[in-house]
Model the fold of this input.
Amino acid sequence: MKAVAITGEQQCELVDRPDPTIKVNYVKVKTHSIPMCTEFHAYREGRLTDRLGHEAAGEVVEVAQPGRVKVGDRVVVMPGSGCGKCSLCLSGEQIHCEQPIKAAEVCGTTTGRSTYAQYCIQQDWLLVPIPDDLSYDHASMACCGLGPSFNAVHTMNVNSFDTVLVSGLGPVGLGAVVNARFRGARVIALEAHPWRAQLARSLGVEAVIDPEAEDALDQIKALTGGRGADKSVEASSAEQAPAFLVQATRRKGQLASVGWGGPINARDIVGRGLTIHGAWHWNHLRDVEAMLSTIRGSKQLLEKYITHRFPMSRVKEAWELQLTRECGKIILHPWE
Done:
């Protein structure tokens, strides 16, 4: 099969790799949509590797044993690989599993767990069936496109009465905008990059504030009647962002962190009576229908959010675009 390999600083190529093999409950998936995430960091820094990507949607082409899916099924491949036996996995929180399975050891394969390739493998219980009315591209947003921020807004029960503040309008933050807008919330955002700010406005964001502005907090307060946002989503991973959102969220409000930013002072949390949520990924066993409904009801927004599609052979061009930050979510198509 063809796979992407980083061969030097801002250098990459397609390479031939063995097709992955499967055993026990593992499934082989022919990838059709590969959403791009933070792999561009490795490309920029020249980290030599062909183990790239953790998001995909595709078609089941082989099963090791009868199980939850069959050959021909269209599926989203969930990231991670939990043990499937602990209380976290059994409740759908496999992303937090403390004893994840290593597919290479189980299946005896050197390939398959990275998704920048024509085939990948995953345990059958970590595949989400794609309804007939959803395309591979849209369904693949159930991974990191909409997934972490879906967890955030779902956990906070975001609704049409809320003003939601989103910090950072990279692909994950823009996904938070889509999730919040689908639920009818009013959305304001923090972002310094003009191109991303404009894309966010096209998705329905009412106001975009430069987080580096000295009066950024005052602007948020002015937009929220002096109280602050009802609920906030931190998606920038900036060191100072979580602490800033504590001040920008109203007393007795909620804050969900999708990004991996800096610390928050416990005194501020207690003093403001805030509820803080860590939102890494969504519960694919409990909330699949809600996620699919979000994708189905956001098709027009998703076509704005997914700004570019490239054949996998043009991955270098896609990475160079990501480095400019003038893009939303980008999808690779490995068979074009």
